[in-house]
Design goal:
CATH topology: Four Helix Bundle (Hemerythrin (Met), subunit A)
CATH architecture: Up-down Bundle
CATH superfamily: Nucleotidyltransferases  domain 2
Shape: globular
Largest sheet: 2 strands, antiparallel
Number of helices: 6
Distance between the termini: 33 Å
CATH class: Mainly Alpha
Length: 148
């Protein structure tokens, strides 16, 4: 797992000044995506990618609060790697799960449809909702100024 210092020196992340408006906007995206991921008429593939985006945005919130943002390619992967260091080892399993979902999302977005089951969608939504609680509590403890 690369450190924040290493990611910074490699140019994969850079300094970023966030704001309450930015964090509020990202939380609005998370809430929208979690709601949309449960629309019955959507395919399992689309529900999955939408729920995945909510998890990615939650991780982006953490990265932004620590005054970083990703640059260049592989920003999903880099975001999850950076957040592992920020949140610590007690959250590595969750972040590894979301990173595995990133790989599945890439298949359904770029290779072929029908790769995702309804069971996987339900699991991802459940994990993302739990992660949202972790992120909100982390914000309350570490960056309450960004919560409106």
């Amino acid at each position: 797992m690369p450190s924040l210092k290493q990611l910074l020196s490699e140019g994969k992340i850079k300094s970023h000044k966030t704001s309450a408006n930015e964090i509020t906007g990202l939380l609005m995206i998370v809430n929208r995506d979690l709601k949309d991921a449960q629309i019955k008429e959507l395919s399992a593939d689309r529900k999955f990618t939408t729920a995945y985006n909510a998890a990615l945005q939650l991780s982006t919130i953490i990265l932004n609060c620590r005054s970083y943002r990703t640059t260049g390619g592989s920003h999903h992967y880099v975001t999850f790697q950076a957040v592992k260091e920020i949140l610590g080892s007690q959250h590595h399993d969750s972040i590894d799960y979301f990173d595995a979902c990133r790989n599945k999302r890439n298949i359904t977005d770029y290779d072929y449809s029908g790769a995702i089951s309804d069971v996987e969608v339900v699991e991802l939504i459940k994990e993302t909702l739990a992660y949202k609680e972790v992120v909100i509590n982390w914000l309350k403890k570490n960056y309450p100024q960004y919560l409106k």
